[in-house]
Amino acid sequence: MTDSTAHPFGIDFGGSGIKGAPVDLSTGEFAAERTRIPTPSGGKPIDVADVISDLVDKGAGVGAPIGITVPGVVVRGVVKSAANIDKSWIYTDAATMFKERLRRDVIVVNDADAAGLAEARYGAAAGRSGLVVLTTLGTGIGTALVYDGVLVPNSELGHIEIDGKDAETTTANSIREKHDLSWKEWAKRLTVYYRTLERLISPDLFVVGGGVSKHADKYLPLLEIDTPIVPAQLRNTAGIVGAAVLAAEA
Q: Does 121 reside within a domain?
């Protein structure tokens, strides 16, 4: 039986930690304090499911829908890639696994997609129509497409080929740090990347997420592109919020 007052519960699964919280969809804010548990060593599916079960037992209301992010492509609940998690996730039917473990309704979504939807509903792109593209600049480049408030999943535009190379291998924030690039040097690479996206999909707005978004004033003004570009607002809450939104709407 579902408790009509139960808030949807979002869970953000990452390489170092698994975080969860109930979300008030009227505000996009957590309805209770976030809980974080370290990702189990190796991060294999069954071990992650055990941790997520603990999070749900501790923080989710009776019958609350559960949304879970995974750092990989997710097609109809099945994980199709695993760039930064254990390779055993590939072809795992995560939605079925979590549903059987939790005995609740569950939706599984790519982590960047969840963050993009959250920014479109409650953050930097709230109220914007047309095509919004979220890019997360971190270890790699994650992307999300939201058109008139509707998520178009699994865009993976961090992997487009530019000058014969996977874009994130030359342009991610990890590359800036590894090669000690100045903000100006990195902005030149970002300009090439965002110009390429402009030519491909003609977006109405770029939103830049990832931890480096807190330094947006150091590099966004240096980009020479036509599309408006703004830093994300929700930052490390976005994955949980977006997952909860999708769970509620599923």
A: no
Residues 127-157: pLDDT tens digits? 999 999 999 999 899 999 999 999 999 999 9
Quickly count: other Cβ atoms within 10 Å of residue 129's Cβ: 11
- State whether 140 and 226 are in the same domain: yes
Q: Which residues, 6 or more positions from 45, have their beta carbon under 8 angstroms from its beta carbon?
A: 86, 88, 89, 92, 94, 97
Give the span between the Cα atoms of 173 and 180, in whole angstroms.
10
Ramachandran area for residue 42 (φ above 0: left; ψ -120 to 50: alpha; else beta): left
In this structure, the answer to whether residues 39 and 82 fall within a common structural domain is yes
User: What 3-state class would DSSP assign to 141?
Assistant: strand
Phi, psi of 30 (to 5 degrees): -65, 135
Could you tell me the pTM of the whole model?
0.93
- Name the residue range of residue 18's domain: 9-113+237-249
Q: Looking at the structure, do residues 15 and 109 belong to the same domain, yes or no?
A: yes
Kindly state whether residues 58 and 33 are assigned to the same domain: yes
- Residues in a beta bridge with 77: none
Count of domains for the chain: 2
> 13 and 69 in contact (C-beta within 8 Å)?
yes
Q: How many CB atoms lie within 10 A of CB 224?
A: 11
Residue 137 CA to residue 20 CA, distance in Å, equals: 22
Beta pairing class for 106-110 and 66-70: parallel
CA 107/CA 88 separation, integer angstroms: 20
